[in-house]
Amino acid sequence: MAVGVLALQGSFNEHVAALRKIGVKGVEVRKPEQLESLSALIIPGGESTTMAKLAEYHNLFPALRDFVKMGKPVWGTCAGLIFLADKAVGVKSGGQELLGGLDCTVHRNFFGSQVYSFEADVLVPELAAKEGGPETFRGVFIRSPAILEAGPDVEILADLSVPSDKSTKSVAQNPEEKSETLEKVIIAVKQGNLLGTVFHPELTADTRWHSYFLKMVGDANMQNCSSSEGVPDGSQRPPDLPIYQ
């Protein structure tokens, strides 16, 4: 199995290394034609505006949108999640070009600037149920977005409690601190063959998210095989038999 990793900017090397660690070849993708032979794609974290400009320069957007529309598994981390969202707020002047597909609204820079990056233990019951290991995952949040709203078909895989006054800087300074006024923001979702995490699993030694995504790829391949088997071609349809009464 070969999994593509969009290699325009950001932490694509770390994703390739994580895939190699679990025995899967990661293919760096920089041109539209490189997507044709792939059955899945990872869009890494990075600077979303820069990635969008490079994708436009290399004429990648049409091919990437087709890849998503074909139902092939795609996983976006941090900036990659922003790409997959149907709507993004808090974007720079001029907007942010998106691929779409995930029925959610993402705040592009919810947790503040680079200096307010942080790590936090995140409850991941679905991940633990599928991949084993502890009930928590050490999330690395680097200028991370957050998912503000998710549609009815979106499965929420993880959330994080933040101060209700949106003072997210305090989360970065002490993410373990308890507060009386907290509200949850969504940080990991799944919709069909699309997976999104606002944090960076590729920057940890824990490869469970990559294994989880590969299971999605395997499930999608099995569905494609099942749908293509046993469907007779019109020219091979047996003749109608007479009906005797």
The gyration radius over C-alpha positions equals 20 Å
Helices and strands, in order, run as: EHEEHHEHEEEHEEEHEEH
Tell me about the largest β-sheet: 7 strands, mixed
Number of helices: 7
Rounded to the nearest angstrom, the distance between the terminal CA atoms is 55 Å
The total strand number stands at: 12
Structural class estimated from helices and strands: alpha/beta
Strand content: 25-35%
Q: Approximately how much helix is present in the residues?
A: 25-40%
Q: What is the average of the pLDDT values?
A: 86
Shape assignment: globular
Model regions low in confidence, pLDDT < 50 over at least 5 residues: 231-245
Query: What spatial order of strands do you see in the largest sheet?
Result: 2-1-3-4-12-11-10
SSE layout:
Layout: E1 2-6, H1 12-21, E2 25-29, E3 41-43, H2 48-57, H3 61-69, E4 74-77, H4 79-84, E5 85-89, E6 102-107, E7 118-123, H5 125-131, E8 136-141, E9 146-150, E10 155-163, H6 168-173, E11 182-191, E12 194-197, H7 208-228
Parallel strand pairs: 1-2, 1-3, 3-4, 4-12, 5-6
Antiparallel strand pairs: 6-9, 7-8, 10-11, 11-12
